[in-house]
Every structure is written in structure tokens, then in C-alpha cells.
């Protein structure tokens, strides 16, 4: 009973696996070769496109992180200034 369910889960998981290169293959008009082996030149183009996309995503994420860091630093500076003012007011 459990083995049958496990096999069904494995099959469902395989069906839901995403082909991450398919959008790149479509962009380079190579989607018809998705199930076949690519020649060396096409494989290099796919690799370069995938690396370019990865770089763009990483740079975008880095910009978001940098903006959040600057915002948090500003909040910290204002909180520190308020705390310093309260400390000076008490003395």
C-alpha cells in the first residue's frame, strides 16, 4: 500500500519538475532540439545565455539587498540620534 503511494508521488514529482533551460532554448529558437543533444556551438550559446540570466537576477537581488541595508542603516542612525538626545537631556 505504501509502496504504491510512494511510486505515485514519485511520478507526480517527475511530472512537475521544471526544465529551466526551456525558456532559453525557446529564446534561441532551439526548442525543437530540447529532447536531442545540442551541438557544441548551440550548447555554448545556451550556457552563455543561462549565465547572463543568472547574473542579471543576482545583480537585481543585490540591488534590493543594498537598498534595504541603506534603509535599515538610516533607521539605526535616527534611533541612535534619538537615544543620544534622550541621554543628553537626562544629564
Describe the structure.
The chain is mainly α and 91 residues long. It has one domain (19-90). Helices cover 79% and strands 0% of the residues. The chain has three helices and no strands. The protein has helices at 2-16, 22-27, 40-90. The model has no long low-confidence stretch (mean pLDDT 84).
List the helices and strands and how they pair.
Elements (H helix, E strand, L loop, with lengths): L1 H15 L5 H6 L12 H51 L1
Write a concise synopsis of the structure shown.
This protein has 91 residues and is an all-alpha fold. The protein contains 3 helices and no strands. The protein has one domain.
Features:
elongated, 3 helices, mainly alpha, 91 residues
Oligomer: single chain
| Ends apart, CA distance between termini | 76 Å
Give the tally of β-strands.
0
Strand content: under 5%
Rounded mean pLDDT is 84
Parts with pLDDT < 50 across at least 5 consecutive residues? none
Q: Estimate the helix proportion, in percent.
A: over 70%
The H-and-E topology, N to C, reads as HHH
